[in-house]
Amino acid sequence: MPFQIVRNDITKVKADVIVNTANPEPLIGDGTDHAVYEAAGAAELLEARSKIGRIEPGQVAWTRAYGLDAKYIIHAVGPVWCGGDQQEETVLRECYAHALALADQLGCESIAFPLISSGTYGFPRERAMSVALEEVGKFLLNHDLMVILVVFDRESFGVSSSFFHDIEEFIDEHHVERLLEKEYQEQKEHRRFNGGRSTTEGRGLQERTRVWKNAAVPEKDQPLDQLLSGQEDTFQQRLLRWIDQKKLNDTDVYKKANIDRRLFSKIRCNVNYTPKKKTVLAFAIALELDLASAVDLLARAGFALSPSSKFDQIVAYYIVHNIYDIYEINASLFAYDQPILGA
Fold first, then answer.
1. Which of 63, 109, 178, 302 could connect to 48 by a Cys-Cys bridge, CB 3.0–4.6 Å?
2. 16 is catalytic
3. What is the pTM of this model?
């Protein structure tokens, strides 16, 4: 999966590159910087860092990783928060952009970041998280690299209190069920006002409603071969139809879905491929499907949205609000201790 969020000590994460939140001068600082030096071997790392000299805020440099389970350490100098009017956000964006570009130049396949400047440098965690997700998202649209965002504990993770308020209001045990019921009733009203006849739009809604309501039940005397002859699209077939209808290419879709290219190739080559639920929902987000179409795609893979699942409710929240940024969604899922979307 191109992007992951994990709760861990960054010195214990296995990746080609570990990003250190470095001091401008070759000194051992506090927080992540101190932990990286201790785990890598302070004497050797400090000697290598001294050869680099001063690193300006927003800039990066690399050394060997020494005792860490990595090939390289990228030393990124983040901004000290001074109220927000000293170009702090610009400098922070440069840290991520330069570190990602350097990892790519070094031929690396994976990189692990802390939430830069959100500790002793005082950058507000919510804004630091937003910058990290935006810069990583932009980079991954055009590059293949595993990016791991590492947070040490729940308090280190920046998600706005207003978001939690909104999501808690949305999540209750019947919300998704009510949304589906509402659209089901709209379909019935559509048919009533059209004299019982369905337009093309009505037929599409009718088909999806039948899937949601589990109404596609064979008649008692219907032969099995007749039932199977009317079998509808598999997940793979419907997914590829959506990609064509949206006039998207495969690369755009699997990158927006946080899906590995090799997995997407398996799906494209196997008409009966059985995905995981989080993979289906990742594609629904990448394709920017409405709730009805997302539920239909889930049903074709053998899944449904459950009103008792916090994971389902959070994803539904974003779909209903037409928010399709998978990095933002995954940050929210992580904050609620839920699996993130993707492969």
1. 63
2. no
3. 0.78
